[in-house]
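User: Show me a protein chain along with its predicted structure.
Assistant: Here is one chain, sequence first, then C-alpha cells.
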Amino acid sequence: MDSNSVSPMPELAPIAEFDKSPPSPPNEEVPMDDLPPPPSTISHPEANHNHVKKQRSRSYESDDEERGACEWCEYALVITLATILLIGVSALTVFWVVYYRESYGWADDIPEKQFNLHPTLMVAGFITFSGFSILLYRICRCFRRIYVKLLHAIFHALAFPCIVIGFLAVLDFHNKKGINNFYSLHSWIGFVAMGLFGLQYAVGFFSFLLLLICSKGTASFRASLVPIHASFGILTFVLGVCACLTGLTEKALFTLGNSTILGEFSAERYSGLPDEAVIINVIGVTTVAITAVLMYILARDKFRPQLRDRRISVEL
C-alpha cells in the first residue's frame, strides 16, 4: 500500500434518538408539583348505580342488625306468652272440673263425672296440643326441619286420643241420660272439627312421613300439598276453638242457669256471675287469647322459615 494514501474512517454506531434529554441525577427526587395531573376517571352510570345499591344493601343489613335485639325480644315474648296460655287453659279446665264439678269418673253411679272428661280432653286436644303443634312448626329454629315435622306429628298424635276419648265420653253420657245426640250448634261444629282433624292427620302422616322413603320422587307433590295442608290446619284449629267456646257457654247455661219459672228456662244464676261462672268465662277468654297469639305468629313473616330452609324441608 502507498504510504501517502489515507485509510478510510470506520463506520460509527447510530446515536439513539429515543432519549435526548439529559439524565437526571440518581439521588434527586422529582417534586410532586412537577408531575402531570392524574388522568380523569370516567364515571359509568352502571357502576354508580351498583355502588348505590351496595351502600343501600349495607344500610339494610345494618338496620337488621340494629333490629335484631328487638326481634329476639319479640320472639321470646311470643313464645313465652303462647306457652303460658296453652298450658294455662288446660290447667284452668282441670281446676274447674275438680273443684266445682266433682272430678272425673267413667263406670260409676254418677254419669256427670264421665261427662267431665269431655271438656277437659277436648280443650287439651283441640287447643293445647294442636296449639303447640302449630307453634313449634312455625317458630322452632333450633332443629332441622325434619325434626320439627316429627315434633309437629307427635303433638298431633297426643291430641288424637284426647279428642277420641272426649267424644266417646260425651256420647256414652248422652246415651245413659237419654239425651239426643248432635242436636246443638256446638255438636255440629265439633263434629266437623273432628272430621277435619282426622283427615288432616292422615294426609299429613302419609305425605310428610311415609313418603319420605321416596323423598326425591315425591318432593314436588309434597311441596304442592303444603299450602293446602296449612290452610285446612288453621281452619281445623279455629273450628276447634269455636266448638270449645260454644260448649263452655252451653255447659254454663245448663248447670248454672238451671232454675225454671213457670216451666221456662231461666239463667238467673249465671247472670249473677258466681265463682264458677267466672272460671268458665276465664277459660273462654284464654282460648280467644290463644287464637289471637297464634294468628299473630302465622301472620308475621319474621317467624316464617326462610326460603332456603323451606326448600331444604321439602327435599327432606
